[in-house]
Write a structure and sequence with these properties.
Shape: globular
Order of helices and strands: HHHHHHHHHHHHHHHHHHH
Radius of gyration: 21 Å
Distance between the termini: 28 Å
Number of domains: 1
Structural class: mainly alpha
Length: about 400
């Protein structure tokens, strides 16, 4: 097989770097728990004005957006590899299946050390891309849109309503308070093997959450949308598609603005202080998913415009460096989060404010950029990327750059 995986698109690497910034902020504001924590952890900061501001900022602009952004870029990468391969499509798809199987192994190992892992989810959902390799652009786009606005989850809700299934009880089995407290105690105790055992036992809960919330469908929808973008050469030839991205920018921010106004109006009306009908809950959930999707596309268009400016060349170069080492950087964020927030190191979870968590995330991200730039001056790939590539091709890949 001869896929030109080394042919990089700086803009796409830059977007990947920006996605990593969003991911670390989303995780470190929650002290990198990767799972629901007992209410006692955040209670001391609920009366703190700065914490409230940071939580509001995070809820509107960060949380729920960047897992989808990263998913979109995963789909773009699949499309790029498929377009560049010089082998038969069947041979490429077989190699890609092996590639994401390896990713699943990395993800499972990562999940044992941190419940918030997305790589194991990507590996499972990624096999679905193989089924869409030959479909038309129109089908690809419409299926992507249906999944992104979470239609399957809304149908799922309707089925449960008509069957009188208690969804509250199901959610209670996923995020049970005793389990959350046990998890917090394990984090703070810093005992390695009991922590791994608890994470392993929690994997079925994680999958329940993915299905019940619809995140699994949204992730795959963004895979397909990214694949569609790659097919259309939208990011590869950004300058030729500036009109498309300008329209995307305007439409998405307009939708987000309207939905935010609706949300503020509902909040002020006090409707969330009472029991609301299931149909209204489903409608609000769909609007929330739509807002998140529009925010992702707004980021794709807006950041692409910024990074395409000559005055932003240094920013593009910095983000592209960490973007080229996205897998290594993502796993390193967990390793550093372990040391900073868990009992294996400084044990700061809940002991610093969410604002400090944000600040720590920014500092770690800047350090990762510096490390990525230093590393790529000497090596062709990030260490985990090199290992993944070597196992994909079942032979040792060149690593050092020739001086």
């Amino acid at each position: 097989m001869n896929s030109t995986l080394t042919s990089r698109v700086p803009l796409i690497d830059g977007l990947r770097g920006f996605a990593l910034l969003g991911i670390i902020l989303a995780h470190y504001i929650g002290w990198h728990g990767g799972w629901s924590l007992p209410q006692e952890v955040s209670k001391p900061y609920q009366s703190d004005v700065l914490s409230q501001i940071i939580w509001t900022f995070d809820g509107i602009l960060v949380t729920g957006k960047f897992f989808a952004f990263f998913s979109f870029l995963f789909g773009v990468s699949f499309g790029l590899m498929l377009l560049r391969t010089s082998d038969r499509k069947a041979a490429f798809l077989a190699r890609f299946a092996w590639r994401i199987t390896l990713l699943g192994g990395i993800g499972l190992l990562h999940h044992l050390h941190w419940r918030g892992d997305i790589l194991s989810i990507y590996a499972m959902v990624g096999f679905g891309l193989l089924l869409f390799a030959n479909v038309s652009d129109k089908i690809l786009l419409w299926v992507a849109i249906g999944l992104i606005v979470n239609v399957p989850a809304r149908l799922q809700d309707a089925y449960m309503t008509f069957q009188h299934i208690d969804t509250g009880a199901i959610w209670g089995t996923i995020f049970d308070e005793p389990g959350n407290k046990r998890y917090l105690n394990l984090i703070r105790a810093g005992e390695y093997f009991p922590f791994l055992e608890d994470n392993w036992a929690a994997f079925p809960k994680k999958m329940k959450f993915q299905v019940l919330s619809g995140r699994l469908y949204i992730t795959f929808g963004f895979f397909l949308l990214g694949f569609w973008f790659a097919r259309k050469q939208l990011l590869q030839q950004f300058e030729e598609h500036r009109i498309f991205f300008r329209k995307l920018l305007i439409y998405t921010i307009s939708v987000v603005g309207v939905l935010l106004l609706i949300g503020v109006g509902l909040q002020l009306s006090g409707i969330f202080n009472q029991t609301i009908p299931m149909w209204l809950s489903a409608l609000l959930s769909m609007l929330y998913d739509l807002m998140n999707a529009c925010m992702v596309l707004f980021y794709v268009a807006g950041v692409s415009f910024l990074l395409s400016k000559k005055s932003w060349n240094k920013v593009l170069s910095s983000l592209a460096a960490i973007g080229k080492m996205a897998l290594t950087s993502y796993l390193t964020q967990t390793l550093l989060g372990w040391f900073i927030f868990f009992g294996f190191g400084l044990n700061l979870l809940g002991k610093v404010s969410p604002a400090v968590g944000y600040l720590i995330g920014i500092m770690v991200f800047l350090a990762q950029i510096a490390f990525s730039q230093w590393w790529l001056e000497r090596f062709r790939y990030g260490p985990v990327e090199w290992l993944w590539r070597s196992l994909t091709y079942l032979r040792i890949q060149p690593f050092l750059k020739s001086r």
